[in-house]
Specification:
about 10% strand; Alpha-Beta Plaits; Multidrug efflux transporter AcrB transmembrane fold; single chain; alpha+beta
């Protein structure tokens, strides 16, 4: 990666042309980007429940409807009825409307002489007030009309508009909404209240809010980022560069969505904001490191190269963990969340590419080279970061206990979280959609519907009275439950015809199967299509309700299924389906997918950190602070009653992916400082002091950026923003209080350091100190030691300079001159041993030799502190090392010549 970045610095024109080309292609693709909202986006694509629902709509017709409601005290006035009839005619002409159901089409069954009339209730308009009242009374006795097409007070009428599932998904939301509104617009001036509500209206309202959110939230996030950068970095380049990378990342991501045909939905609409606020955090770290170099005396080019050397690993890993955090949300089976996972992870990958190519290049040519007053270099100094780390180290036991209690309490509180997955819940109670849905529920029946499919397996099942009575048992239960507003089935049709023919006035089924067959002769087949199959083997019970919250619906469905299992004939197979059921069914997986994505991220964090630092303890060290963050999130949701929905179900994995970035920077910084000091506490406090400003800046930027999402018109997005902002603050606390506490128990060394140390050929066989070690163990020793390069004629130590450390020649040649003048030359060609100065490990011997470099050399130095560190943190390696050292020192003592170097290579090999 460093090579790739350095290449971009050497070829700025090529990089610039690449950026201009991709940006131009993205702008060209943007016009094809669509906003698409579908109820299916809240379901599990390809599931058995979805397949069954599709089969059901093919058999009984669509449950995708819009409802026209007109209300007036003089509802049955002839002029008003004429207007409604004309509106219905206009609606039925629309290509995506299958049919309508209203008082103009539902049959008014009545006996006139020897005939049963099946003309609609409003086949003829009432000629007087008395006739209107009689019509209203007759209509309200019909199970097809009451609570469905006419309110109990007779002042509200509904027209159910059944939409073609195939066509409605190919026609733009805005066009359907506009055409339906145009068809009913003439009614508004003549009725007290008129409104349309249903799938097209909800989809269009969501689309409108997506656009309005984008116009408000994206600029607000950009402004917040601007002021955050201004306050923290206080330099023009520090503001210009993050804004540039964010803008380009957003443009490319939207262009990619357009090119791949991925539409904007409620969740993907927040991706630009996420790229602005998340992508900028790495820019802040990089720019801060660049200016640390500038203030340390480096020129622009050297400061950039220093930044690349120090930050490449951390930036790569942080983008990796953040990207995996977004991808982890894709474990959720709900279609909308999966699309969000794909788009956000792709956007973050684009942001990574833009950042690593553009930030070093812009700093190389635009970065300031003068100190700005008030800018903090972040160099070690007494400050808040150091004070926080010191406090954590001094109060390890009580802080650990308090943290544990808080985590346990939060987990207990999280048990109160409900699950929700409904489009209506995207709108607050004051929205037009929720107001109209509640009004529909109060006057007629709820907007939500589901179907109970009862399969008798045999032709003619529902021409038999005993099986019709099974439908009645289910419907009676539904009518007794306040949660359900309306239910209708083939049993209602037959009971109505029977009551009409017998003139009994009571709705009741006949007692004999033959009578059922006779009564069905009075009904047109198309009138039964919604309620029974042509062979009468399967029946459909239609249910309407106003339960938009998934938890409420799931509870009622559980009671309903229990009733069906206990009461209904076991020969009948009963299945509940419908759009609201599919969404409710998908909500069952929200908690499960949340747990999976959270576990996935914790495992990823553990593996990445453990591999990076070649230490299982380091993996646990990173996991524990992030578990604190996750438990805090769920505890807050439980206390405030915030549901788990499509928005909030993604927060935990994303938050861990982001917060571990700061943990990563802290650990890498600590490890680098620890290499230069033997004081663990000093390394921790210095790391905290240096990382405080960039981490604090990133935290403020992230929290403020996420908070802009509370300006959204969608409730789940508002929750997403508020909770994400809170999580960022929790992560800041965890990184500067919990992480220092845990670091005090472990010493870190990165895999990068181990792999990058100079593993010279022959060390394993030509140096007595490494006898019995494998290559990885030797690399550990090299990484934990101190490696320096020496020019010709350098003096490593002499009689006048005391050194309590031993040395290993890695490359080159040195001459050892003891007092007895028995000069010895050590080379890296295998003819001599490579260790020297072991006498300096014993007090008083170090000043008896003079060691000089005769060829440019690379030398490893180990003192007692470094040897002790190896023994503590790499016990197996340390035991071998000390065993070899004991043999070496024993030979020195036995040799009685303290200045003597170790045995020759020949002696060692024997």
């Amino acid at each position: 990666m460093q090579y790739f970045i350095r290449w971009s610095l050497r070829h700025p024109i090529a990089v610039l042309l690449f950026f201009l080309s991709v940006s131009f292609l993205s702008i060209f693709a943007l016009p094809s980007l669509e906003i698409h909202v579908s109820p299916q986006a809240l379901t599990i694509k390809g599931s058995e429940a979805n397949k069954f629902h599709k089969q059901t709509t093919q058999l009984f017709g669509t449950d995708n409807i819009a409802i026209l409601v007109v209300s007036d005290a003089e509802l049955l006035d002839n002029n008003k009825l004429t207007l409604v009839r004309d509106a219905i005619t206009r609606i039925e002409r629309l290509p995506y409307v299958n049919q309508t159901q209203s008082l103009f089409s539902v049959p008014h069954l009545r006996v006139e002489g020897d005939f049963v009339r099946t003309a609609p209730f409003l086949a003829e308009f009432p000629e007087s007030q008395d006739a209107a009242e009689q019509l209203t009374e007759a209509a309200l006795r019909s199970p097809f009309v009451r609570k469905n097409l006419l309110s109990d007070d007779g002042q509200s009428m509904a027209v159910n508009i059944y939409l073609d599932d195939g066509l409605i998904n190919t026609v733009a939301n805005a066009k359907i909404h506009q055409e339906l509104n145009a068809a009913v617009q003439p009614l508004q001036a003549h009725f007290a209240d008129t409104f349309l509500i249903g799938t097209p209206q909800i989809r269009e309202k969501i689309a409108e809010r997506i656009l309005s959110d984008a116009k408000v939230i994206v600029p607000t996030a950009g402004i917040i980022l601007f002021f955050t950068l201004l306050m923290v970095l206080r330099r023009a380049s520090g503001i210009l560069i993050p804004l540039s990378t964010a803008s380009i990342s957003v443009l490319w991501t939207l262009g990619l969505m357009a090119a791949l045909g991925i539409p904007i939905n409620v969740m993907t609409t927040i991706v630009p904001v996420l790229l602005i606020i998340i992508g900028s955090t790495e820019d802040i770290h990089l720019i801060s490191e660049y200016y640390h170099g500038v203030e340390s005396g480096y020129d622009r080019k050297r400061a950039v190269l220093r930044m690349i050397r120090l930050m490449t690993l951390a930036v790569m890993l942080t983008f990796l963990t953040s990207g995996l955090g977004f991808l982890a949300t894709g474990l959720n089976p709900i279609q909308m969340v999966r699309e969000f996972a794909i788009v956000s992870a792709s956007g973050l990958a684009i942001n990574f590419l833009v950042t690593v190519l553009l930030v070093p290049l812009l700093l190389r040519y635009l970065g300031e080279t003068k100190t700005t007053r008030g800018f903090s270099t972040g160099l070690p100094r007494i400050g808040l970061g150091e004070k926080m780390a010191t406090f954590a180290l001094k109060n390890r036991a009580p802080l650990a206990i308090i943290t544990g209690i808080v985590m346990l309490t939060a987990m207990l509180l999280s048990s109160g979280i409900n699950v929700n997955n409904s489009y209506l819940q995207y709108f607050d109670e004051q929205s037009d959609i929720r107001r109209e849905a509640n009004l529909l529920h109060e006057k007629l029946s709820g907007l939500e519907t589901f179907n109970i499919i009862v399969d008798g397996h045999i032709d003619g099942t529902f021409e038999r009275v005993n099986y019709l009575n099974e439908l009645v048992k289910i419907q009676n239960y539904l009518r007794d439950r306040p949660a359900f507003d309306f239910t209708l089935s083939i049993a209602d049709y037959i009971a109505t015809i029977n009551s009409t023919v017998n003139d009994s006035g009571d709705l009741e089924l006949p007692e004999e199967d033959e009578v059922v067959e006779s009564l069905l002769l009075f009904v047109k087949k198309e009138q039964l299509n919604h309620y029974v199959t042509e062979d009468f083997s399967r029946a459909n019970i239609v249910v309407r309700h106003n339960l938009s919250a998934s938890a409420d619906l799931n509870r009622e469905l559980s009671y309903l299924r229990n009733h069906i299992d206990n009461v209904i004939d076991k020969d009948l197979k009963t299945t509940i389906t419908g759009s609201s059921i599919l969404s409710s069914h998908a909500s069952d997986f929200l908690a499960e997918s949340q747990a999976k994505s959270l576990a996935f991220m914790l495992v990823v964090i553990f593996i990445v950190i453990a591999l990076l630092f070649v230490n299982v303890k380091a993996g646990l060290l990173a996991v524990i602070p992030n578990m604190f963050v996750a438990s805090g999130l769920f505890g807050i949701m439980g206390v405030l009653g915030i549901p788990l929905d499509t928005g909030t179900s993604t927060i935990a994995a994303i938050a861990l992916g982001i917060s571990v970035d700061h943990t990563m920077h802290f650990l890498v910084r600590y490890q680098k400082i620890a290499k230069t000091t033997n004081s663990k506490q000093q390394a921790i406090t210095q790391a905290a002091s240096i990382e405080l400003r960039p981490v604090a800046a990133a935290t403020v930027s992230l929290a403020a950026g996420f908070a802009t999402l509370t300006l959204s018109g969608f409730t789940p997005v508002q929750y997403f923003g508020a909770l994400s902002a809170t999580v960022m603050l929790l992560a800041f606390y965890a990184n500067f209080m919990i992480t220092p506490l845990l670091l005090s128990y472990v010493r870190l060394i990165t895999l990068w350091d181990i792999l990058s140390v100079p593993m010279r050929r022959g060390l394993k066989t030509q140096c007595t100190l490494f006898k019995g070690m494998n290559e990885l163990q030797i690399r550990h020793v090299l990484a934990l030691g101190k490696i320096e390069n020496y020019p010709v004629n350098s003096v490593i130590y002499s009689a006048s300079r005391r050194e309590k450390q031993l040395f290993v020649l890695l490359k080159g040649q040195v001459v050892v001159n003891p007092r007895d003048e028995s000069q010895q030359v050590l080379r890296d060609d295998g003819t001599t041993d490579r260790i020297f100065g072991t006498g300096s490990m014993i007090d008083g011997w170090s000043h008896q030799c003079h060691v000089e470099v005769t060829e440019e050399s690379q030398i490893l130095a180990l003192d007692w502190d470094r040897l002790s560190r190896i023994q503590k943190f790499r016990p197996r390696t340390g035991s071998i090392l000390f065993k070899n050292l004991s043999v070496i020192l024993a030979r020195l003592v036995e040799g009685s010549t303290p200045a003597r170097t170790l045995s020759s290579a020949k002696e060692f090999n024997t």
